[in-house]
Amino acid sequence: MSKYPKVKNQELVGTYPAFVKSGGGYVWDEVLEYRVWCHPEDGAPDIDEEGDYYYFFDNYEEALQFSEDTQGAEPPLALILQEEYIGEPEPGKYIHVKEERLTEWPADFLTRPRRTSSTIPDFFAPDAPDNRIQILRDLH
What we know:
Layout: E1 21-22, E2 30-38, E3 53-57, H1 60-69, E4 77-82, E5 85-90, E6 93-97, E7 101-106, H2 119-124, H3 132-138
Parallel strand pairs: 1-7
Antiparallel strand pairs: 2-3, 2-4, 4-7, 5-6
């Protein structure tokens, strides 16, 4: 049993755009795929005219094994869907963003809460604790 979530739809793995957002948002809705980026300048095979490239996987464990076995490969990232999220346009200022986005996260960020109908409203509630962002970051 994996400590990381399954992808939303195995049949769609590999069909998502390569260039998406990176990090942010504090909550997630779905994992779409796991990715391992490879860098020829770090010793990965040069298959794309010296450009970086990635392999996609439908589970974390295979992505991790590939990453560990491949020179010039990064640790796996999770491509996630955020249907809405908590934005931070400047340090300490949080906003509720009600738009969909795809973003890559380090897989360990998946220990942060999967968004529920109450996650974001509770975060912005007047009686939320002062350390509410730390609660989201440290939730394991």
